[in-house]
């Protein structure tokens, strides 16, 4: 049996159903007892980012995990390796979706005028303030991390006339970007975009000191992983005006819940971890994952 614990393109769920018994319960990540019970019957597991594949769940008996996406911080990779469980992220399938998210939200934040609707509905006509928005062409796009998604983001930024600088101690080449240190990226960039995994090295790498080191009036986009930024510090930098805008798609705690730091913070875009999720990306991710898991289980 293949157990799918989060949302997946229905056509590819049906494709799997034609080859194996499938249990598809897209809210299963919120029901740990049911997850444990059903996982004990599964040979393959398909998850997104909310299902925690760790602890006792690893002893359920499944032999492979298909990840509908690329981030793996919800999966105990060492534990899987010790048990012979193969892990298959959908590498590359949502690259364009994330890159488009970064560049388009950065453009919205630089232009600023899209935040004027409440004032306009109240009868104001804030044309003067809205007219001080900035163009994205000629701005510096700073990428922290220079993997596949960052490279595509840089490509889209260059197409709009941006200069691209990047910092990544693990990158072997910087084709399309000027190599720089993290400090140099923060100091030079009009738009800072994060493209690193969540590790002890990167946890809260964008803290109050890092934000203070950014150019006044810069904007920040995090479509990578929650926990990389100090969310309270971002809110403080937005309130003070040092940071002109921010877009956060990932958070230290997901869902946010009613108690969070963001209420009333200006020039802030919040989205529910969907940078890599579009109709097209969901189809690509689902197809890649379905085919990979089927092949791993000898069903292709």
Overall average residue pLDDT: 97
| Envelope shape | elongated
**How many discrete domains?**
2
Derived from helix and strand composition plus strand pairing, the structural class reads alpha/beta
For the largest sheet, list the strands in their spatial order: 8-7-6-9-10-11-12
Helix content range: 25-40%
- Stated plainly, the CATH topology of the largest domain is called Rossmann fold
Quote the beta fraction: 15-25%
Fourth CATH level, the homologous superfamily of the largest domain: NAD(P)-binding Rossmann-like Domain
- Alpha-carbon Rg, integer: 21 Å
Which CATH architecture of the largest domain is right? 3-Layer(aba) Sandwich
Largest sheet: 7 strands, parallel
Termini separation: 14 Å
How many helices? The count is: 11
Give an overview of the whole structure.
With 300 residues, the protein is α/β, with parallel strands linked by helices. The chain has helices at residues 10-17, 32-39, 77-83, 95-111, 117-121, 127-130, 148-159, 182-188, 208-213, 231-240, 279-296, and strands at residues 2-4, 22-24, 44-47, 64-67, 86-89, 140-144, 163-167, 178-179, 191-194, 218-222, 243-248, 268-270. The chain has two domains: 2-93 and 279-296, NAD(P)-binding Rossmann-like Domain (Rossmann fold, 3-Layer(aba) Sandwich); 95-270, Rossmann fold. 34% of the residues lie in helices and 16% in strands. Strands 8-7-6-9-10-11-12 form a seven-stranded parallel sheet, sandwiched between helices. A five-stranded parallel sheet has the order 2-1-3-4-5, sandwiched between helices. α7 (148-159) links the parallel β6 (140-144) and β7. The longest helix has 18 residues, at 279-296. The model has no long low-confidence stretch (mean pLDDT 97).
